[in-house]
Amino acid sequence: METLIIDGKKISQDIKDELKAEVEDLKKKGIEPGLAVILVGNNPASKVYVSNKKKACEYIGIRSFSYELPEETSEEELLKLIKDLNQTKEVHGILVQLPLPKHIDENKILLSIDPSKDVDCFHPYNVGMISIGELNGFLPCTPAGIIELIKRSQIEIEGKKCVVVGRSNIVGKPVANLLLRNNGTVTICHSRTKNLKEICKEADILVAAIGKANFITADMVKDGAVLIDVGINRLENGKLCGDIDFENCKDKAMAITPVPGGVGPMTIAMLMKNCVKAAIM
Ligand code: NDP
Q1: How far apart are CA 57 and CA 77, in angstroms?
Q2: Has 87 been annotated as catalytic?
Q3: Is the pTM higher than 0.70?
């Protein structure tokens, strides 16, 4: 059977179109979702991310409030802004683009966001809610995007052996949690894991969130596996590639996500979903 190349661009566009229709309905009821986006400093990659988030808001009909602050902004100033936004009725979601300049304590900032406006789902309250299996609040964007990609490709998670390589707070741990909530049998691997190849080879669903170009090779993949590639790596020739050796793994897989155009576009779509949710919660 031919391998399914999971089209993240198309699926994320479908989600954005669904949200656009939902927002039109909400506006008829007098509700206009609003997202505050805070960028501190001049990190070029962060500027691109923030601009893409604002564009997505515009497309869906979410009002965006933009705060572009200089690099030397103090922690106190940023905390004060967040405190104000926590109390602003028109702002339903608050997003602080990471990384922050080194003189600002990221944890302190993330903790200061009202959990009911924490659309990135980084606040320990929301992380904890996911851990205890309460999925009615915000879902972490990249992990939730991965689950959507799998489900919208009509792939069953229940009962499947799921292996996640990577244990970061942003991707590895939360995606493992969501797979578990969807009744997968989950193994989490990391840099100290022994027999990584053998463990990966048992996976029905393999999620790679490592940050190393083409790390997962064909000999680590079971025939008929579903391969989800979270990695974004820039090669010397300037091209982007994932953590999975796409060319050599794709013929073995039942389904695979490309890089770019797989998991990447889903993150913003799921952020938008959280913003709409925030307006009606
Ligand atoms: P981190 O660097 O925080 O985590 C990487 C993980 O990979 C760690 O848990 C590390 O293990 C593990 N690892 C590193 N080397 C090995 C190895 N040799 N064998 C097994 N495990 C290993 O990265 P992130 O989770 O933040 O991101 C991972 C990738 O996903 C990056 O390429 C990033 O750019 C991309 N990304 C993509 C997003 C998207 O929207 N598509 C969103 C977020 C990230 P240990 O804990 O032991 O160090």
Answers
A1: 26
A2: no
A3: yes
